[in-house]
Design a protein that fits this description.
single chain; about 260 residues; mainly alpha
């Protein structure tokens, strides 16, 4: 008797698996947060913040650490962790990159504190105390705002008129869509305060990352829901002020 033909189910199964993988890849490429959209490249650019801190911690000395900027980024990224979870479409890339940045910038603060205590033991305790007081004040303000949010929101809703419209605004002052973008002003303020910072104490990787993320997020602010004009303006100032320091650094080191 003739031998029965070998079943083709194995080949068919592999082909179907490959087709499913191709279809999944195509669906991701064209998805709402895929690489054809700003929802992908904006958060990817934000990975530059944490990666630059990791790079500086591995390759550069602690003398270039800007403790005020690192502390600001810890709070800023903490707010954006929540923002990434609430924004639509929900952005897991943005969520993970800011989680990583909280850890990376905290490590930079630890390195800065160790460096100061070793090289300037007389003045270091006072500097650490000042930074701690600023952090404590920021934490107290954050807790107080969370506690007071619901009562004030309800009061504004009951008053009606303009106050009710403000309370109902999805990107208004009672929601993370307002506070996370507007806290980004603190990054720009740090840049302005450091307008004459010696270039040998400027991190090339960090200023590059801040300039890039500010530029891309200007576009991203118009494609998220709700559209966030405050996010646009704060990133315009951030990209400009960071670009200023980036140009200073490049001119001093390479031109």
């Amino acid at each position: 008797a003739l031998a029965s033909p070998r079943p083709r189910s194995g080949i068919s199964g592999r082909a179907q698996g490959l087709l499913r993988e191709v279809a999944a890849m195509a669906a991701w490429l064209s998805s709402a947060t895929g690489p054809m959209t700003t929802h992908f490249w904006g958060p990817v650019a934000n990975w530059g913040l944490s990666l630059s801190a990791i790079y500086d911690a591995s390759m550069k000395g602690p003398e270039i650490i800007n403790e005020r900027m690192s502390a600001t980024q810890v709070v800023y990224s903490g707010l954006f962790v929540r923002f990434a979870w609430c924004v639509q479409p929900r952005n897991y890339i943005l969520f993970t990159c800011h989680t990583a940045n909280v850890a990376a910038q905290t490590n930079q603060l630890r390195r800065w504190a160790d460096y100061k205590l070793e090289t300037d033991p007389v003045n270091a305790p006072a500097q650490l105390q000042n930074l701690g007081m600023l952090a404590g004040g920021a934490g107290t303000a954050l807790v107080a705002s969370l506690v007071a949010r619901k009562p004030i929101l309800n009061a504004c809703m009951n008053m009606g008129g303009p106050l009710k419209k403000i309370a109902e605004a999805p990107a208004g002052p009672f929601y993370i869509h307002f506070w996370a973008p507007n806290f980004k002003w603190a990054l720009s303020i740090n840049n302005l305060l450091d307008y004459d910072r010696p270039t040998d104490k400027i991190s090339l990787s960090m200023t590059s990352a801040l300039t890039l993320t500010g530029t891309i997020f200007m576009r991203w602010s118009f494609v998220i829901t709700p559209v966030n004009y405050s996010l646009f303006f704060v990133n315009l100032v951030l990209s400009t002020s960071s670009g200023y320091h980036l140009c200073r650094k490049i001119k001093a080191d390479y031109l």
